Amino acid sequence: xxxxxxxxxxxxxxxxxxxxxxxxxxxxxxxxxxxxxxxxxxxxxxxxxxxxxxxxxxxxxxxxxxxxxxxxxxxxxxxxxxxxxxxxxxxxxxxxxxxxxxxxxxxxxxxxxxxxxxxxxxxxxxxxxxxxxxxxxxxxxxxxxxxxx
Length: 149
Ligand code: PNS
Description:
Radius of gyration: 15 Å
Oligomer: single chain
Number of strands: 5
Structural class: alpha/beta
Shape: globular
Bound molecules: 4'-phosphopantetheine
Helix content: 25-40%
Largest sheet: 5 strands, parallel
Number of helices: 5
């Protein structure tokens, strides 16, 4: 049996916190998809879906069992379609936990797919896409928490 996982998120933009989770999770599965979620016809956020996919592809280029895809629908429709048994998420804090638990339970009740959580590397515990966007907007330097170009 092939163990497949998906790491979904808006990834607007992808951060080193995300990449650290991708690398650790990829070691636990045969195949893993980093899935950029969102609707390309209804752009929202700083980066377009195709820019987010491109940044993610660069960040995981050296991981042979990881691919990048995007999806504009329900996550469970993607996992069912691609025979993926596990959703991988990162947890920084209890705030993330409160946000993630209902989604994990909803996804499981919709399709039976399970969610596994990886604790964020403390080095990146303060890093979020939202804060990165805020710092970028005002011209701050956050290159150390974004994947290298
Ligand atoms: O980067 P985020 O905002 O933490 O990602 C949340 C995301 C995109 C994983 C979640 O919103 C999602 O699964 N969206 C796809 C649509 C869907 O299935 N929604 C119901 C979730 S129970």
